[in-house]
Amino acid sequence: MEGRVAEGLRGALGPFGFEVHAFKVGWYNAILQPTFHLPYPDDTLAFVVLSTPSMFDKALKPFVNKERLKIIRDPVDQCVSHHLSRVKEKFPDQKVDVIFDYEILPSRKPKFLAQTAAHVAGAAYYYQRKDVKLDPWGRKKIYGVCIHPKYGGWFAIRGLLVFPDIQVPFMEQSAPVDCVSTEEKRIELLEQFNFHWQNSRYRDIIEVKERYSEEQKAYFATPPAERFRLLGLTQ
């Protein structure tokens, strides 16, 4: 069942520059405090959805051209929402719950922890402070970051698709690729991500197969309120 659903999702989302990776809800819940648990049985099938560098040209620009007059909030969020919601039409006999990376609970906590989901699904390795043996940061707060084996840091985690009625007790977990394997590189990655993230050097911590185009970099470097102008939209 899981293979068939995965194939359907890749067919629906792949041409638009998205990647999907399957996981069991229990793998995710097992490593988080109860306040962050997803409210489904452990064997429930879920997928994490990533946008790759080609999403900008394959999904966002055509979406903006077509939906120009209907764009009222962040164009990327709206474009992702459009594509993930359309997935439901592919599975008319299944219940599909879509959870977006920007959604929050009444408690102000995010509805899901994107980087943890990407890690348990084997999509991207979530490098954290605990992955460094000799920690040089003392009392500083250090945030972790996911690195994709093909795109480095040039990707984004956009949402989850949960299939509440599909249970996959025998699904096997695949570990994410540990592509930043030396202590020095991990320190450099966390250092760049936490203190110099604006220059994007952390994204190139490994040799990448594809990165954002100059146009896309300019778009994401622009404050959200001004992005409408870049796309030729008026707000």
UniProtKB/TrEMBL annotation:
GO terms for biological process: cobalamin metabolic process. Pfam families: MMACHC. It catalyses: apo-[alkylcobalamin reductase] + methylcob(III)alamin + glutathione = S-methyl glutathione + cob(I)alamin-[alkylcobalamin reductase] + H(+); apo-[alkylcobalamin reductase] + adenosylcob(III)alamin + glutathione = S-adenosylglutathione + cob(I)alamin-[alkylcobalamin reductase] + H(+); 2 cob(II)alamin-[cyanocobalamin reductase] + 2 hydrogen cyanide + NADP(+) = 2 cyanocob(III)alamin + 2 apo-[cyanocobalamin reductase] + NADPH + H(+); apo-[alkylcobalamin reductase] + an R-cob(III)alamin + glutathione = cob(I)alamin-[alkylcobalamin reductase] + an S-substituted glutathione + H(+). GO terms for molecular function: cobalamin binding; cyanocobalamin reductase (cyanide-eliminating) (NADP+) activity; demethylase activity; FAD binding. Keywords: Cobalamin, Cobalt, Cytoplasm, FAD, Flavoprotein, FMN, NADP, Oxidoreductase. InterPro entries: MMACHC. Its main location: cytoplasm. One of its GO terms (cellular component) is cytoplasm. Its EC number is 1.16.1.6, 2.5.1.151. It is found in: Cytoplasm. Its cofactor is FMN; FAD. Belongs to the MMACHC family. This is Cyanocobalamin reductase / alkylcobalamin dealkylase. It comes from Rynchops niger (Black skimmer). The lineage of its organism: Eukaryota, Metazoa, Chordata, Craniata, Vertebrata.
